Amino acid sequence: MPSLNSGLLCRELRAALAPLTAICPQVKTKPCHGGWGAAGLLLLLLLALATAGAVAGGLLGFAPSPPKPLLQMLRLTLLSPSVPQPNQTAQVDVAQNVATIRVTPAQSNRSWAVLFDGQSGHVCYRPPEHQACFLHLMEARDRETLQLLVNTSEAQESRSPSQHTHRAQELLAVLGSHEVDPAQVGASVQHLCAKTPIYWARRAEGPPRQRLIYLCIDICFPSNICISVCFYYLPD
């Protein structure tokens, strides 16, 4: 009976060592003799299992780790702080067909004034820190903007861009050598630019090219459109 049990344990041990022999050819098994004791067979079996575990751990340790997903970088971008929005109010005179938008940029206590004068047909910009006004003739889109401001009639309501705001840029070329005679403009422009020189400006046409920008102002309208109006001087 002891020899029968030893033979059975020997066959089981060979079956357990077969995968290890395929992975590591240098590991060889020796024939089992009937004289082995149960303690010796158990010790050999534990040694074989420990060796197989070490080999499997080594193979797993050298496996390349999967690349980190790019979602983490995208999440950091989405969590970045938003740009402070300017404070903006609009004053509409329906009877005179005039609207004045005052924009106070973020981190500033001085306001721009943008005048849409439907009577004289002008749009006038007065920056807070420059002793000058910039004037250009109203176009069809300017009249549409004025009509929208008149229709909404929200005179003192502050506006801020919504999540679905469309943004655009507009370039105005300042004609520094062409000062406007105040007598040629309406009373609203004269009142806004009292004792301040007024210069003609015109919208830039053609493909965009490099220009020396003088100053910019962001204006948002009730139609969820924000326009960054930038001025630059044309050479004399």
UniProtKB/TrEMBL annotation:
Keyword line: Disulfide bond, Membrane, Transmembrane, Transmembrane helix
InterPro entries for this protein: BRICHOS_dom (IPR007084), Gastrokine (IPR051772)
Stretches that traverse the bilayer: 39-63, 212-234
Domain BRICHOS span(s) in chain numbering: 106-201
Name assigned to this protein: BRICHOS domain containing 5
